[in-house]
Design goal:
about 425 residues; Spore Coat Polysaccharide Biosynthesis Protein SpsA, Chain A; Nucleotide-diphossugar_trans; 10 strands; alpha/beta; transferase activity
């Protein structure tokens, strides 16, 4: 039996530490290894960085005197104790609507129920064929904070967004779909964060799904998260996915004015492009704790859960990264190229995982080959990954997934959801 050398520590530097400190040290080491794999300097900090346009940043800028609860290892996010709202800002809410007249009263009523804010609402009707325009007119007649802009001909959702947002006059801007809603004081919570952090251009939170009835949400904020825009952008590129569903977003008017419009080249991912473009110029904040929006689930907005929607979503996410970070983009710097490569790698691996998950189920409609082709074209080295090996095995034989494999996949999905629910990325 091999004897341990005298004085040699079996657990290295972590020996004798409490469990939570060992886990924290292990997490730091894991992040350093991940940074090394991505070609990053593990010791770098966001303070004093420059954004992709070269302008000096304030880091995760905060108003002086705010209590920092936790500065995470690596400096990529600062957890801050919430502070009170000392001003009364104006928030402009744009509600685009096409044949969603039945949902309009809920959406409008929810945004008007916000303490400490001056809220104005603009409903943009895109030539609806139902009674949407009549419902909007009745809401405007009942409350002078509500106005209506009506299209004579249907212009499509991107043009409708841009027409409404061109009319905003508030200090902060919200785009809310007519079938969604926000909890009481959700806008107040988001605006309070930005009023206390003048470097933050966009705030989001957790969007809760609902079908018919809105539930009461406790108006208690656990904490605020504040990222430097560059660090948040890097997180998104590493995951290759959109972590924001849209109704939970509040933007600073100055940040929106720098972007000015949704991109018609991205009919299914224009919102993701807005978030990433904002992160190139501003810091990003999140309200942790209560839901910040209610996302209505119904048959007409389930398109991205179908197989065709799955492929469309991946392709449009790839196009977003190409337009914002690719060689011909305005941010064509060395750092942008690194983030672009990181995002393409993440998307390719996501596509292969989907091919494996959908293909082993023996569903003849599952687009496994199309997903694999997308991944191989986007990032050829994906063929050397474990995900690709699993895909190759599933493609060669009619594999029946063992129960333990199914359970492991569901567990990974649930853990990823829990992380997104709590931390926002």
């Amino acid at each position: 039996m091999r004897r341990r050398q005298p004085g040699r520590r079996r657990h290295g530097r972590c020996r004798g530490l409490p469990r939570h400190q060992r886990e924290r040290a292990s997490g730091r080491a894991r992040r350093c290894r991940q940074h090394a794999r991505d070609g990053l300097d593990p010791a770098r900090r966001p303070a004093g960085r420059r954004d992709l346009g070269g302008r000096p940043r304030a880091g995760a800028g905060s108003a002086p005197g705010l209590a920092v609860l936790d500065a995470r290892a690596g400096g990529d996010v600062v957890i801050v104790r919430p502070a009170p709202l000392r001003t009364r800002p104006r928030v402009s809410v744009v509600i685009p609507c096409y044949n969603y007249g039945q949902f309009l009263p809920t959406a409008v009523g929810s945004v008007l129920d916000q303490a400490g804010l001056d809220v104005d609402v603009l409903i943009v009707d895109d030539a609806s064929t139902d009674d949407s325009l009549d419902v909007a007119a009745a809401l405007a007649a009942a409350d002078d904070r509500v106005a209506v802009l009506a299209h004579e001909r249907n212009a499509g959702h991107i043009a409708t967004y841009n027409d409404g947002l061109a009319e905003v006059r508030g200090d902060y801007v919200v785009l809310l779909s007519a079938d969604d809603a926000v909890p009481r004081n959700a806008l107040t919570r988001a605006v309070t964060l930005m009023e206390n952090h003048p470097g933050v251009g966009l705030v989001y939170g957790f969007p809760e799904n609902f079908e018919d009835h809105l539930r009461d949400v406790p108006d208690v904020v656990r904490s605020w998260s504040v990222w430097s825009g560059q660090d948040w952008l890097e997180r998104i590129c590493r995951k290759g996915k959109n972590v924001i569903m849209s109704p939970e977003v509040v933007m600073r008017r100055a940040a929106w004015d720098e972007i000015s419009s949704y991109d018609p080249r991205l009919p299914h991912a224009a919102d993701m492009a807005i978030w990433l473009r904002t992160a190139q110029r501003w810091d990003i904040g999140r309200v942790n704790g209560p839901p910040q929006a209610f996302y209505r689930v119904h048959g007409e907005n389930m398109h991205l859960t179908t197989y065709a929607g799955m492929i469309t979503d991946l392709r449009e996410r790839s196009l977003v990264f190409d337009l914002l970070l690719g060689a011909g983009s305005a941010a064509g710097t060395a750092d942008a190229a690194r983030l672009h490569a990181m995002a393409r790698r993440a998307l390719a691996r996501t596509a292969v995982r989907l091919a494996v998950n959908e293909g082993i189920g023996a569903d003849p409609d599952a687009p496994t080959d199309e997903l694999a082709d997308f991944a191989r074209t986007l990032w050829p080295p994906v063929q050397r990954t474990r995900e690709w090996q699993r895909y190759s095995r599933s493609a060669r034989t009619d594999v029946v997934r063992p129960p333990k494999v199914t359970f492991a996949g569901r567990a990974r999905t649930h853990l990823a959801w829990r992380q997104w629910r709590r931390y926002g990325t």
